[in-house]
Amino acid sequence: MTEAALQLIDVHKSFGHAKIIQGLNLEVAKGERHAIIGPNGAGKSTCFNLISGRFRPTSGRILLNGKEVGGKPAFEVNRLGLSRSFQVSNIFANMTVRENVRCSLLYSQGHGYAFWRNVGSSRELQEKTAWVLERVGLIDKAHTPAALLSYADQRTLEIAMTIAGDADVILLDEPTAGMSHSETEYAVELIRKATEGKTLVIVEHDMGVVFGLADRISVLVYGEIIATGKPEEIRGDPKVRSAYLGDDAEALTLGGAA
Ligand SMILES: Nc1ncnc2c1ncn2[C@@H]1O[C@H](COP(=O)(O)OP(=O)(O)OP(=O)(O)O)[C@@H](O)[C@H]1O
Ligand SMILES: [Mg+2]
């Protein structure tokens, strides 16, 4: 059996009386590209927040490369090899593109926030930053303040920052949301290349992206995974189709055909 990069075992999360995640079980193999889909409010981002250390699970276990990380702070989970992007962009608007990438590289190397502005000079750091920017097509905008980038470029920068470090497990939360068709295609290719050899868990509403990228798909509805399987298994699953109403069920078909 392939070793798991990520395992969630009977994970629960409540906010007050609201039970948002209810007995979630998920296993992602090393090197797999796994998509999590599900209706708005199903608990997808909460699931990422639990895995990445933003939230502490109410109960259950979360294992990263076999090590318990449930309840550990985010920087520690990052240090153990997991990097995530946010649904709402998390870049530093006042910093340049280059400074943003440099910050995420320093963070992934274990440096604290206060350290960031003073250590720009190491040659290795400069080279790695340039390499990342080259790879994502933002090298020409290295000196542009992030706030002045187009929306799609800001999302690309966020992807770049997530994959910049050496994390071998990458979580992307709706990386193509709000992008045009051609911007989405570019982002998908970028994600595919940049996560080669790594483990990817992606939350997405765009079924074209999901079916184009994922080796396996899990469907999260009301805090529970109702189905996990290969794209063709998920597309044909009646439980999944009934969880998606109207246009969304149609999207499932269209995504499958793309
Ligand atoms: N910090 C919080 N405190 C209280 N409730 C929360 C908190 N975070 C999320 N929730 C609730 O948990 C539920 C799931 O939210 P979540 O953001 O995980 O959904 P999602 O599947 O990512 O939805 P979307 O597709 O719209 O991004 C929602 O009802 C939300 O209001
Ligand atoms: Mg979300």
Detailed description of the structure:
With 258 residues, this protein is of the alpha/beta class. It has a domain at 88-166. The chain contains ten helices and ten strands. Helix 3 (97-108) packs across helix 4 (123-136), helix 3 (97-108) runs parallel beside helix 5 and helix 5 (151-164) runs parallel beside helix 6 (181-194). The protein is globular and about 55 Å long. The chain binds adenosine-5'-triphosphate (ATP) and magnesium ion. Magnesium ion binds at residues 44-45, 87.
Give a brief outline of the structure.
This protein has 258 residues and is an alpha/beta fold. It contains ten helices and ten strands. The mean pLDDT is 90.
User: Structural class, please?
Assistant: alpha/beta
Roughly what is the average pLDDT, rounded to an integer? 90
Report the order of strands and helices.
Answer: EEEHEEHEHHHEHEHEEHHH
Shape: globular
Strand numbers in spatial order across the main sheet: 6-7-8-3-9-10
Q: Over all CA atoms, what is the radius of gyration?
A: 18 Å
Which cofactors or ions or other ligands sit in this model? adenosine-5'-triphosphate, magnesium ion
Largest sheet: 6 strands, mixed
Number of helices, counting only DSSP H or I runs of 4 residues or more: 10
Q: β content, as a range?
A: 15-25%
Quantity of strands, as a count: 10
> Residue ranges: pLDDT <50 for 5 or more in a row?
none
